Amino acid sequence: MTEMREHGFDFFTGVPCSFLQPLINEVIASDEVSFVIATSEGEAGGIAAGAWLGGKRPVVLLQNSGLGNLVNPITSLNHTFKITSLLIVTWRGQPGLADEPQHELMGQLTHSLLELLRIPFAEFPRDNLARNLLLKKACEHMDATGLPFAIIVRKDDLSGHATIVGPSLPRQIASSITRKHCGDPYLTRYDALSAIDQLIPADTAVVATTGKTGRELFTVADRDRNLYVVGSMGCASAIGLGLAMTMDRKVLVIDGDGAALMKLGNLATIGAKRPRRFAHILLDNGVHDSTGGQATSSATIDFAGIAAAAGYQRVASFDNVATLNELLRSSWMDGPSFLHLRIAAGSPHKLGRPSVQLRSPDDLETSSGERSARHCKLINGVF
């Protein structure tokens, strides 16, 4: 880890693999870097993206069996927004070595899958000088392209005996839940987003999930503070967590029921990390609006109950604008807070589409380490 710190890597997230045990345990024990154990590799990709947006140089740790879970964030988040992260990928099922049968096929496909995803990679060198040169190469690639780089770790590449004794997190007591359901006609998403836009502090960083939520917020008010997650469905709350852990300002995630269900484990990670300046609003219309209104399973789920059990500090479930106004004008932006708002299905016919301005090579970090203008704005909380 010392070599990685020397090259600026200061934020780690991922899903454990036994091949990475020495590195992961060293990171967990360190006071110099942040580490988040994710519930899935896709979530880890979102958390790392948020950390990058907050000014960190992140590392995603994963077993190669989890590459499949990371494909969508890589293709529709990292590539779309030109967000970098270093991927440390283990090589389970390496041909010629005995391993569990479930790793056999992925062991054969690991290198070709990274090539297909257009991610340059190299196998972990055991020589110290070669390792430093590889990290330097990885940084130069990421700074020049704005895209990830991968290092493949084989069995016994990493040595060390650092161990973690006992649970690293105290058990959280479930929060009480505020429930205010009036039964009146539900708000439209457009009206809910209009109210949210007017009520939250001006310096709040807003992360809006993919689909109609982002498009409607873009139509309501396209503000510099808004990040429209046009892809990587389910990752908005993970991105928000990464931001909240690395930025000294409030972060608001605006989620949907379909997206939240896709990565429900995110709630557990947020509850465990308990970011103080973090609010999570879930607009629940019970359908996948962007694809024709097919029903989600939200009708049989208590989102508020799940958030409370996961460790959110403040939790509410409601269906009216009066309660929305009351909560957003109070201390509910200090959290982590979870606001489940039942809304009507449907969307305006004419909606704008957020445009994603890709960074040109001239706008990326220079070899001297100067931040690009875009990244400096992101660090300051302006998207």
UniProtKB/TrEMBL annotation:
<keyword id="KW-0670">Pyruvate</keyword>
<protein>
    <submittedName>
        <fullName>Phosphonopyruvate decarboxylase</fullName>
        <ecNumber>4.1.1.82</ecNumber>
    </submittedName>
</protein>
<feature type="domain" description="Thiamine pyrophosphate enzyme N-terminal TPP-binding">
    <location>
        <begin position="4"/>
        <end position="106"/>
    </location>
</feature>
<keyword id="KW-0786">Thiamine pyrophosphate</keyword>
<dbReference type="Pfam" id="PF02775">
    <property type="entry name" value="TPP_enzyme_C"/>
</dbReference>
<feature type="domain" description="Thiamine pyrophosphate enzyme TPP-binding">
    <location>
        <begin position="228"/>
        <end position="340"/>
    </location>
</feature>
<dbReference type="GO" id="GO:0033980">
    <property type="term" value="F:phosphonopyruvate decarboxylase activity"/>
</dbReference>
<feature type="region of interest" description="Disordered">
    <location>
        <begin position="351"/>
        <end position="371"/>
    </location>
</feature>
<dbReference type="InterPro" id="IPR011766">
    <property type="entry name" value="TPP_enzyme_TPP-bd"/>
</dbReference>
<dbReference type="InterPro" id="IPR012001">
    <property type="entry name" value="Thiamin_PyroP_enz_TPP-bd_dom"/>
</dbReference>
<dbReference type="GO" id="GO:0030976">
    <property type="term" value="F:thiamine pyrophosphate binding"/>
</dbReference>
<dbReference type="InterPro" id="IPR029061">
    <property type="entry name" value="THDP-binding"/>
</dbReference>
<dbReference type="Pfam" id="PF02776">
    <property type="entry name" value="TPP_enzyme_N"/>
</dbReference>
<keyword id="KW-0210">Decarboxylase</keyword>
<dbReference type="InterPro" id="IPR017684">
    <property type="entry name" value="Phosphono-pyrv_decarboxylase"/>
</dbReference>
<dbReference type="GO" id="GO:0032923">
    <property type="term" value="P:organic phosphonate biosynthetic process"/>
</dbReference>
<dbReference type="InterPro" id="IPR051818">
    <property type="entry name" value="TPP_dependent_decarboxylase"/>
</dbReference>
<keyword id="KW-0456">Lyase</keyword>
